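WARN retry 2 of 3 for item q-0093 after timeout on previous attempt; input resubmitted unchanged.
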Amino acid sequence: MSFISGLPHRSSPYFSVGHFFRVLNASVFGVEPSRAIAGFKLENYDVDYATGFFPPEPLPRLSGPFELWERALDDAEGNISLGEDTRESAKAKRPYGESWRERVRAVSIREPDCFLQRAHMILAFLVHFYVHSQPPSDTPTPVHVPESLAIPIVNVSRALGIAPVLTFADTVLWNAIPADSQLPISANNIKFVRSFSGNSTEKNFHIASAKAELRGVEILRIIEDYAQLPDIVDVHAVSKTARDLRRLVTVVQDLTDILQNVKEAVDPYSFYWEVRPWFRGSGCGASKWIYDGVPESDSLDLAGPSAGQSSVMHAIDVYLDVDHQLYQKRSPAPSEENKRADKGRYMPGDHQAFLRDLAALRVSIRTRAKTSPLLRESYDLAVLALKKFRDAHMRVACLYVISMANTTPPGTPEEGSERQRTQQGPRQGTGGSHISSLLKAGRDATDRTLLGRR
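OK item q-0093 returned
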């Protein structure tokens, strides 16, 4: 299913290269020409040429029999508090929270047949509101998600090929609309439809994520151009690829700046205690979730959203052949715990297909760079830029998660102590991964990708 308009076909200038250059390439590089990959175009993967993985138009509000989900989320925003929040102002909202959850349980089960992305976003927000508005119990017990939410979100998720839980796509990609509806969505013209806390910290966190996604659209164009080259060993094609790699360096440097500037708009303390608890999925806290009415509920992917689910960042890794899964022997050898968690199932199915097909390109750009001095230098510059990005990511994560974990929760000392008792175990990212080891694994895998050791 595609929610975007088709892109105009662009003929490649490299089809006009003559027989002379093909003979020259074969003799100089000792490699037979590699043809373009048929069908590898952004439009085939629900990727827009202007907005990338964002939908090109805001998702329409659910209507008809499915509007009840929209209304339920309308009622939740601003009226429901975190169950683990022990401040009196939060406790005052608990009676409404219980009556709201009772109304959600009473909703009749419906089979959605349209507006799937919007339906997933609304249902995922409802699930997290339902779970996290409940005060934690003294002993870990499973949290039951009622059939009225569990069955529809699982059905919608199967149609979209995405996990039946809140994901990066729900909080950022499918949640964004233009601030000025007369202009297209952009880094400077964006706002978000739904939020949990309603505070500026959550809003600015999503804006920073969106800025990175939109800046990464240029990388998607670079990738498509590479896949469409009729003959990668052609001297003109090699020159273009080298230039594109240097363009990629600039984009990744901009992504690093966006990441480092997040602290100017996103308060670490507010983010840790007031925003990120809403994002946690099953197993990220004390309790596992059970989706009532869903067979084998314990096998569902329910970790919750994280920036590690960004298809743009995964596309950079696949394009540069960063080997997170240790499929290839590279130096220095990593430790066993440095294997990266797979976030693919938390991306929309079309975007997963984009990454799979990109990984299946006949010859990776890293392989080409090994035999081309011109490509090798540009390639390593791109990998170094990505490594610097991951170094910056580790510093930001330390500030927002690891350091904040040692702070006192908001409220009076008694309220803070009551809440802090529930905060135990390794420091995890919002998607459930142990954040320090995960980010170090990503940094180490990127370092192993360099062709020239520095």
